[in-house]
Amino acid sequence: MSLIKLYGMPMATCTVRVLLCLEEVGAKYELVPISMPTGEHKSPAHLARNPFGQIPALEDGDLTFFESRAIARYVLRKFKGQGPDLLKEGNLSESAMVDVWLEVEAHQYNPAISPIVYQSLILPRMYAGTPDQTIIDTNLEKLKKVLDVYEARLSKSKYLAGDFFSLADLSHFSYTKYFMATPYASVFDSYPHVKAWWEDFTSRPAFKKVAAGMAPQQ
Amino acid sequence: MVMKLYGPTLSPHLVRVLVCLEEVGAEYELVPVNLLADEHKKPEFLAINPFGQVPVLEDGDLVLFESRTIARYVLRKYNSDLLKDSSLVDSAMIDLWVDVEANQYFPTISPITFQCLMMPVLGGVTDQNVIDESLVKFKKVLEVYEARLSKSKYLAGDFVSFADLCHFALTFNLTLTPYATVLDSYPHVKAWWESLLERPAIKKVIDMKKGSWN
Fold first, then answer.
1. What is the per-residue pLDDT for A218?
2. Which of B8, B47, B54, B63 is the most exposed place for a label (fewest CB within 10 A)?
């Protein structure tokens, strides 16, 4: 079997989504760095893997594709049985609940949390820019409304899709990890079930390993 | 008990699900939701989707929201070949192009259709700058689609899939605007679009949508 190659960066949020899955299932893989500052993601070689010039991209034998959530599902399916069942595809309603909360992460949670992370961490640290407080404040309000829904959900079930840890929970890790390094981390203190959920799944060995690669290289 | 799908036919997210329901020949009841009257913000609706958005599916005790989730659920429930769950590679390619629609296609085409079709309904003024900026981005996305569809008949491979159907709603809306001719510069995209229009389920949904802009 050929070795899976993941093209991306260990601190990049979407690459992390896939790294976590690879680690959860114990897959053998090689992380091939793609340098964003030098524009490598827009090089012909990388555009051949991802025509939208983004990371990550995955090569597995003849198969090359992109979009981190699609790659995540592929990894979890390929190594099904080798690690925990994070997709529940054997059960119609459980897999639907995983899908609901994975979509919610993509379309509700992420759009609120990522501008806050971008403005307060990425912009100043990577681009020497000044955070736009209006953007931060507007998105904090949106995030709180989203967290109201998450608090209600997690008061009724241990994890998002049900009483089982799934890809839906995992998918929240990278941006939330960075959010916890911003001055706004204490927002989560008002949502005790959300906070407990966060502390629970981030104690998994796969998460600790991948988190170590996310620390900013100063 | 028959599945209930909540939402108006003018919602492209609802249409994404309608197409799949029609493709599998499911029995369902369509329950209109009046977005203009803020029906989706009322407590009765928030009880089924706390994010206050359409569509929502009720199937017995199961309540689902997020259109791509509902669509996948329907396709799986009816063992549809539009998902290729038994093939690791084919299902990955489907997932890929579903996500490309969500992350690349949708964000560049929807401002155009929103400005042209929804703004008048909402009593607002069409913003040409938004349309023009989106057209530039949308054309770049279409270049990628043209390259892909030059190599394979459909997006995920030489088989029609959920990924292709995900593109129907907004592409159809584009054809109702003055910018329909954008597709003419991308012959493989145009041929792909025309083949989707031939599908009986698509024809039925087009019929169901008539009058949704009134």
1. 36
2. B47
Domains of chain A: 4-78 (3.40.30.10), 92-209 (1.20.1050.10)
Distance CA B16, CA B209 (A): 12
Nearest residue on chain A to B50, alpha-carbon basis: A149
pTM of the model: 0.96
Percent of chain A scoring above 90 in pLDDT: 93
- Chain B positions in Cβ-Cβ contact with residue A74 (cut-off 8 Å): 88, 91-92, 95
B144 neighbourhood in chain A, CB within 8 Å: 51-52
Which residues, other chains included, contact B75 with Cβ-Cβ below 8 Å and sequence gap of 6+? B20, B23, B24, B82, B83, B162
How far is Cα A167 from Cα A87, in angstroms, rounded to an integer?
6
Name which of A93, A95, A104 is nearest B66 (Cβ-Cβ): A104
Given A69, A100, A153, which is nearest B69 (Cβ)? A100
pLDDT over 90 at A2, yes or no: no
* Average pLDDT of span B92-96: 98
A106 to chain B, closest Cα gap in Å:
9
Cβ under 8 Å to A: B residues 129-148: 144, 147-148
- pLDDT tens readout for residues A11-51: 999 999 999 999 999 999 999 999 988 999 999 999 999 99
